[in-house]
Amino acid sequence: MPSSSTLRTRTTTIVRVPARNRMPEDQPGNGRFNLRPEVRQRIVNKIVETLRRHFPIPYSEIFYFASRFEQKIYTSAMSRQDYLRKISLKMFSVESRIRNDSAANA
């Protein structure tokens, strides 16, 4: 029989780790949300594409503006739906203004 000095007891501590595939907005009490960087970049690219069609501004300036605009909306939005709604409404209003200005100048 082994002596008591050679016997080791093992204790297992179970640590609960939050699921990585669960979005923070789905967790109660959390007002923030996360979007993958590639999703946010795709949205910035769409904003750039829309603005380039209507404004003769260098790409770097449009990209800078679009990135700042997206960041501002992202930090102010309370959920993914709020973020997408704000982006959509702003882009719609920009395109509407451009159409109205074009019609007035024609």
Automatic annotation (TrEMBL):
SUPFAM superfamilies: Kix domain of CBP (creb binding protein) (SSF47040). Residues 32-104 form the Mediator complex subunit 15 KIX domain. Pfam families: KIX_2. GO terms for molecular function: chromatin DNA binding; transcription coactivator activity. GO terms for cellular component: nucleus. It comes from the Eukaryota. It is found in: Nucleus. Its main location: nucleus. Keywords: Nucleus. Gene3D superfamilies: Coactivator CBP, KIX domain (1.10.246.20). The keyword Oxidoreductase does not apply. The keyword Nucleus applies. PANTHER family: MEDIATOR OF RNA POLYMERASE II TRANSCRIPTION SUBUNIT 15A-RELATED. This is Mediator of RNA polymerase II transcription subunit 15a-like.
